[in-house]
Specification:
The protein has 94 residues and is α+β, with helices and mostly antiparallel strands. 33% of the residues lie in helices and 24% in strands. The protein contains 3 helices and 2 strands. It has helices spanning 4-14, 67-73, 77-89; strands spanning 18-30, 38-47. Strands 1-2 form a two-stranded antiparallel ribbon. The longest helix is centred in the C-terminal third of the chain and has 13 residues, at 77-89. The chain starts with a helix and ends in a 5-residue tail after the last helix.
């Protein structure tokens, strides 16, 4: 079933139960600190609560942000492009 691994990882690392939303899947490839090449799959998901309990070995910090403010937090053109597509998919105009 598509998204099963992502749902499990999200639960392990944030304690959130989520449902993957259909119709959106993007990829980003980068090299953190110029080292190993990583391919990230980006999808949309609905969380059934906001009771986050992060797994500190995997996540440094987190914060919830509004659609209105999300683009101002992104610095890389590819991330901005993907977020604009995600907002469009959700029919959110900013």
């Amino acid at each position: 079933k598509p998204g099963t691994n992502a749902i499990r990882e999200i639960k392990e690392e944030t304690n959130l139960d989520v449902q993957i939303l259909p119709g959106f899947r993007e990829f980003s490839i980068y090299k953190p600190a110029g080292r190993v090449r990583k391919k990230v799959v980006i999808f949309l998901a609905e969380a059934f609560s906001s009771d986050v309990k992060i797994q500190y070995s995997e996540i440094h910090s987190y914060r919830w942000v509004s659609a209105k403010n999300v683009l101002s937090l992104l610095h890389h053109n590819k991330d901005i492009e993907i977020m604009k597509k995600a907002l469009s998919t959700l029919n959110i105009n900013i």
